[in-house]
Design brief:
Elements (H helix, E strand, L loop, with lengths): L24 H4 L16 H8 L12 H4 L32 H4 L39 H4 E3 L7 H5 L7 E3 L2 E3 L11 H9 L11 E5 L5 H6 L5 E6 L7 H7 L4 E3 L14 E7 L11 H9 E10 L5 H4 L7 H17 L2 E7 L2 E6 L58 H4 L8 H21 L10 E4 L6 H6 L5 E7 L7 H6 L4 E4 L12 E7 L1 H4 L6 H11 E12 H11 L4 E7 L8 E8 L13
């Protein structure tokens, strides 16, 4: 069926906007009385606000002179107007700076190097605003978004042809429909996951975090969500073009990525389960380094699922158009590597094989004397940013690893890395204090913008996640948070975040993030601009935030007042509408909050700019 908008100009009215707290209702009303939404109810926002009797003066304008008069420079009036950032050409609608197709083709194809991150040099960076495509609409709310994506948001039909018989994606009228199929599960991801759940303890919360390598449109991760499992899915920007973009439009966590020459941007012992469903990764090749990298990020006791070639090759070799000898040799290499990694095969049925990583190294002491085994020499298995992938096995940690509680109990249980003192300078008490602080902050945010847990914001990013307190306090089946730990953060806390049952990634905000434009509904930046002061251009960070933020998406920036003032001036030329708010403890606290909404505008089209 074709899903239609409610008015001739493609806009629909959405009642979700009326739930904004009275204190900022006037500010957020600049979104416009008509939201460009794929799921509007047809309500008049102006009417509803007037009925609610909202008081638009609850949040006062901030006066910095009385509290910070000596800290803010006097700005000459002639320089007070912000620099205006113009729209980029419409050809950059889906621009991914560090995975640009043209630049990629200048790099070696060996070991997928050309599909890895290759960011533009300073003189090639764009200093303009990436436009949304004409007809862009707000994605459907979860769980409807799992099954439907507006065609205008990602107008690429190639997968509907290429993967037609595999039930990946279908084009119907003005939407794409995702039946939940895949190359290895044409009958649907749910039935496929049922097969896995007959072997792997998915139901009881033991398995919470999963890694999907070569994820396609991420249907595996999409259908795991209802089972309280959150998957980090990745796939390259390749001939399939928009697979990761489709995943994020569906509301499923995903990044552009590939197993190539560089280590994956995840900590060691992060995932309860890793998965490859006909992902075309040469697991037995390159000395086994791809399996060794999966082993690095797989938690002791975790599971590795491999479905498709070469599993069950005796039955399928003709359909796969490969020789028996080739497939047999490939599986033998995988089996041999699994034993060296201390993985035990616990199931092989049909085309699905499952291995479990031993809980500790005591059960495979013999491999220390095996000439085929080389252990990694690095003392820090989490030091991965732009580090070459090695052909070596990550040893089990010297410190005993505590058991993780099932999810959701593990969300606020003390993570093993904290309990064991593995994060220098962090005690159990300071960790608990940080959690309490973020519960308080989130309560404050919800008073500023009551849309936060309404379902309006599905894909959320925390640009400087710390221990994941922001995400933990927001935890809801309506949303997920990409917890980013900056590579220059004082403490490496991403392992703690995964031990809480959350997901995240390492990143340097001096570079573009590995995602498509318009893939996040809400972006949170705590202390980001103070952290990157004098490290790189603030404009570049803000332009990247704008690139990944959806039209009419929200931004919350928490930082020192000096940083906030600089940011506010820059975004004044970026088609954002902003409001500065005091810290929840009052105006004497030098930390302030800048809230913003990105205006709706498209390539050569309309805007919600307030004139």
């Amino acid at each position: 069926m074709a899903l239609k908008t409610n008015s001739s100009d493609g806009r629909t009215r959405s009642s979700v906007q009326i739930f904004i707290v009275a204190g900022l209702c006037c500010f957020f009303y600049i979104l416009g009385a008509w939201q460009r939404s794929g799921f509007g109810k047809g309500d008049s926002i102006a009417l509803e606000i007037s009925k609610s009797g909202a008081d638009c003066n609850i949040v006062p304008n901030l006066n910095f002179e009385t509290h910070h008069g000596g800290e803010v420079e006097t700005i000459d009036e002639s320089e007070s107007k912000p620099k205006v950032f113009e729209p980029c050409s419409s050809k950059y609608t889906d621009y991914t700076p560090c995975q640009d197709q043209r630049r990629a083709m200048t790099f070696p194809r060996e070991s997928m190097n050309y599909r890895e991150r290759h960011c533009p040099p300073e003189n090639e960076k764009l200093h303009c605003l990436i436009p949304a495509p004409k007809g862009y609409v707000t994605p459907f709310p979860w769980p409807k978004s799992r099954d439907y994506v507006p065609y205008a948001n990602a107008p690429y039909k190639s997968l509907t042809v290429e993967k037609a018989i595999q039930n990946w994606i279908q084009y119907e009228g003005n939407v794409f429909r995702f039946p939940g199929g895949g190359t290895q599960f044409p009958q649907g991801a749910d039935k496929y996951i049922d097969q896995l759940a007959s072997v792997i303890p998915i139901k009881n919360g033991t398995v919470r975090t999963a890694l999907d390598t070569g994820c396609g449109v991420a249907s595996w991760g999409a259908y795991l969500w209802s089972r309280n499992v959150i998957a980090m899915s990745f796939a390259p920007r390749d001939s399939h073009e928009a697979q990761v973009q489709f995943a994020l439009e569906r509301g499923v966590p995903a990044v552009i990525g590939v197993l190539g020459t560089i280590k994956t941007p995840y900590p060691s012992r992060a995932f309860d389960m890793a998965h490859c469903s006909r992902c075309l990764i040469p697991w037995g090749g390159n000395g086994g380094r791809y399996m060794m990298e999966v082993d690095r990020v797989l938690r002791p006791g975790g599971y590795w699922v491999l479905s498709g070639p070469p599993i069950n090759w005796k039955v399928n070799y003709k359909a796969w158009q490969r020789s028996k000898e080739d497939l047999q040799q490939e599986q033998e290499k995988i089996e041999e590597l699994a034993k060296l990694l201390c993985w035990e095969k616990i199931s092989e049925k049909g085309e699905i094989a499952i291995w479990q990583k031993k809980v500790n190294g005591d059960s495979c002491r013999g491999r220390e004397d095996d000439s085929r085994v080389t252990f990694c020499k690095s003392s820090d298995a989490d030091d991965v940013w732009y580090k070459n992938m090695e052909t070596c096995i990550t040893p089990y940690p010297d410190v005993a690893i505590g058991e993780l509680k099932p999810f959701p109990q593990r969300l606020y249980a003390t993570p093993p890395r904290i309990a064991s003192g593995s994060v220098p300078g962090v005690s159990v008490e300071s960790y608990q204090e940080a959690n309490a602080k973020w519960k308080k902050h989130i309560n404050s945010y919800k008073k500023i913008n009551r849309l936060i847990d309404s379902g309006r914001y599905r894909n959320i990013m925390d640009m400087n996640a710390g221990f994941g307190g922001f995400a933990a306090a927001l935890q809801s089946p309506k949303l997920w948070v990409m917890n980013v730990v900056p590579t220059m953060a004082e403490k490496n806390t991403l392992g703690v975040i995964y031990e809480r049952g959350l997901i995240g990634i390492y990143h340097d905000w001096c570079e573009a993030f590995s995602t498509y434009p318009r893939t996040y509904d809400l972006v949170h930046a705590n202390g980001v601009f103070s952290l990157y002061k004098d490290k790189c251009n603030i404009e570049d960070i803000l332009l990247e935030m704008d690139r990944i933020l959806r039209p009419e998406g929200a931004v919350i920036i928490r930082d020192e007042v000096d940083a906030i003032i600089k940011v506010k001036k820059i975004v004044g030329g970026m088609r954002w509408d902003t409001k500065m708010v005091d810290h929840e403890d009052g105006p004497l606290v030098p930390e302030k909050i800048l809230v913003a909404v990105k205006q709706y505008w498209v390539a050569g089209g309309n805007s919600t700019a307030t004139e």
